[in-house]
Hints:
By secondary structure, the chain is of the alpha/beta class. Helices cover 31% and strands 17% of the residues. The protein contains 16 helices and 22 strands. A hairpin with a 3-residue loop joins strand 13 (361-364) and strand 14.
Amino acid sequence: MTEAQGKRLDGIDLDVAIIGVGVGGLYALYCMREKLGLNVQAFDMASGVGGTWFWNRYPGCRVDTESTVYTYSFDLDMFQNWKWSERYARQSEVLDYMNAVADKHDLKRSINFNTRIDRAQWDDATERWVLATGTGETVRARYLIEAVGLLSSSYAPTFPDQDKFKGQVLVASKWPETNPDLSGKRVAVIGTGSTGIQIITELASKVGHLHVMQRTPQWVVPLGIGPFPQEARDRINLNPIAFRDWALNTGTVFGFVESTISALAVPAKERQERYEKAWQKGNGFSFMLETFADITVSPEANKTATDFIKAKLEAAVKDPKVAAMLTPTDYYARRPLAADGYYEVYNRPNVTLHDVKANPIERYTERGLIVGGEEVELDVIIMATGFDAVTGNYLKIDTIGKDGANLRDIWASGPRTFGGMTIAGFPNFFMVFGPFSPFTSQPLVHEWQVNYFTDLIEAAEKTNGIVDTEVTAQDQWVQICQDGLAGTLFQVTDSWINGANIPGKPRTSMWYMGGMANYMVEMNAIRDNNYRGFTVG
Ligand code: NAP
């Protein structure tokens, strides 16, 4: 066993077990060990840190949130001095950063890599979580923290006769560590979400022929890739804590202040100018949320945004038939997409767009895929088909709370949590960015939540208490979240945001839609009210 693989497991008794060492899990490990001085061990299926950034190393993968807020703030020196090279960091740079954080704080010695946790059961008699690993070992811990990722549970549907295909099938979210050479090859990309459009724009000029298998077209705006802006660096350096707190006190923590103006309240000329400015600046979240306040809630306001994008699309794509295929018919109310030069890709002679809703992918052959009754010959097929988001990884672990309550039963018709961090009847159990967390960018919010429950655990430690959640408090939280999504167009537009992307998954709210600033107010009021809604028994 190498040091990086961690301690021997069977029979160990910990204070804290952590599942997942992505952004949230790494910071939780730091807090439990360095702030609270607890005996903690983390587990991850990967052979390194990074969570979703470990696995998603497909061509073109980068953060499409500005690097300024895609960072930790707890290590002030690194917050100020880590030199992100680009406005949107590439996956390799994110991974380098996370390794640097882990190495600086010597976190890897407390991680068992290549270790899957299959089962977690609360044992009332010993007041411990009993975890079973994929290799049959047992680990006990007083606290269990699951930091298993919002978008980490890969979804890659199969099509009939896959075993007959003589080429290669690659899943974007499980990309091989050694990047396959695709130059000159006939490549299909199935899926046109954030992952698909990054792969498509990166590969179009590098492969022999690119076949894009599009089921539902999406609204895409430019990303605005470029060097990390000096003014942002200056602002962070001037006062990093003030910058962090400013970002947290916005609605979505994407590094800008959301608009409060209705798209319908300004003259058409001014509206166009605002959209044009946002288009030139780049960034999907900014285009959707910084321009106007009601794009995601008002069909009329939404149409002003889609009319603008449609005009850009039609100007960019030379073949009107292809432009029509690329034009969505639903609201601009999925997770916003941004990529530079996306629509222009379809002017290339080596790119073919297939409408696989009208002409479905039927099956594999030895040479490729049958699409709408015709064979498309391929060397490589890339599945960019997304994730069983938000709840997927929690439900993969057989999690049993008090009195034998199984999480899969409790969440059968949709998740139930309190503040996105705890579940009633699951004592001493915490989630980082669990269901019904705020609908925001992640790293700074992960930190905020981990800080929050670190304080709660510290309070419980003082009294040897067990932390649980009141059912009524949880019910109220779920209701607030359900009402919140119901008021938006996200609710009525199929996507992973509401669970509609996974066949058979309950379609429901999984978010607190009130914004991060309000979330902090609500959760801080709970803390100041003697942790009302939590029980520390
Ligand atoms: P996604 O947004 O769920 O997109 C999946 C795509 O696969 C959709 O186009 C979907 O079509 C298609 N698809 C699924 N099953 C299919 C089937 N059986 N046949 C044909 N097409 C099928 O997934 P994603 O692109 O991986 O993105 C998920 C989220 O991960 C993003 O929204 C984002 O939050 C995050 N992400 C972030 C970044 C970044 O920061 N840069 C990069 C990648 C991902 P339908 O639309 O018809 O279902």
